Model the fold of this input.
Amino acid sequence: MSVAKKEYKRITVKSLTEMKQAGEKISMLTAYDYSMAKIVDDANVDVILVGDSASNVIAGHETTLPITLDQMIYHASSVVRGANRALVVVDIPFGSYQSDSKEALRSAIRIMKESGAHGVKMEGGVEIKESVKRILQAGIPVMGHLGLTPQSIYKFGTYTVRAKEDEEAKKLKEDAKFLEKIGCFAIVLEKIPAKLAQEVAASVSIPIIGIGAGGGVDGQVLVVHDLLGMTHEFNPRFLRRYMNLYEEMGNAISQYVDDVKRRDFPNEDESY
Ligand code: KIV
Done:
């Protein structure tokens, strides 16, 4: 008897635009390894982001700045092997696109060639226009990222809500229009007022994916470790935890330790 193979229709950048046009919300989650990517993909998440948040949740760094291009490619290739349906987008890490547009293109090409991902994400607006344009010209889909851009944390000084003041809000709106005009396929808006995010989503034809940007945008993204409650010290207002895996995993592991100490594990049935 053969097991029926699950049929997948791959999400593409075009599907995302169609979802926006149809008013269907887009779901996006991070993943950094094969096993998590498989779970996320089988749960029908539309976009898997191999975020540079791997620097925080996987490597334990305070910021996203230390993660390298090689490390991102390693995470991305593991995720791609686990994702049959989702569109896989990879953050170009800090220091791999800021110096000049040729370096940016080389980094994007390495990500696409070595990991098999379907697109890249870059933080910033008009300041990084040469790099974004060059990457787009090479046929690589680019997702923008505006608002709180963690690679610039030392410029901001804090992780508080961005674009509350008129001037920053105006620049953000212009940047979103600009990224749409040059051909980005979507934009992440992080930690900005919900009203502003809704206005931006209504002003562009490409999907706007929010994190801490309210419900008036075209989709939502979270870090999967936060959603599952594996990280318990990070408690921003925008985070909805669906599980408390920190506790559940801790309990399971403590139980295992007890079983080993009590000589209960392995029992006869678990031995050869
Ligand atoms: O790196 C990341 O996980 C991200 C999301 C928070 C959008 O950029």
About this structure: The chain has two domains: 13-241, 245-272.
